[in-house]
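Supplementary Note 3. Input sequence used for the single-chain structure prediction.
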Amino acid sequence: MSSDEGGGGAGSGAYAGMAGRGLWVEEPARRRRMPDPVRTSAVRAVVIVAVTLTQATITFFLTLTGSWLALPMALCAIAGTIVATWGVLDVLITRQMWNQRYGVLSAPSSTARRRRREARRAARGAREAAPGRIPREDGPLAASGPYTTR
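The predicted structure, written as discrete structure tokens, is reproduced below.
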């Protein structure tokens, strides 16, 4: 019998409560996993931002040393900043698009259904209680209706 199965080994007293517990214990995730398109754009944005920060750091050190590569690297760092901004905006836009398309599953609760039913009954009762409509002979639609005076 092994020590995992509760055998009477030298250290069995200290681990007596953990005899049936495995090495890997899964815990529920704190947050749900991001949808695939959002995760893809987020990974892309992180890589672009990392490259841009690396470019900016290299540009800084090249500027300190007075190297001729400082100017081309500065231009690349500026272009990288624009691309990184686009990457971050892409994450936000993709996330918003995903939420608008797939985020909300509309299932009205019984309370909402009851309220709508009561509102329809009230509107129907108000229509039935109101007197019949009398067509107006003046107004913007009077000339185009069946009651033309021409």
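Residues 45 and 78 are 16 Å apart (CA to CA). The two ends are 108 Å apart (CA to CA).
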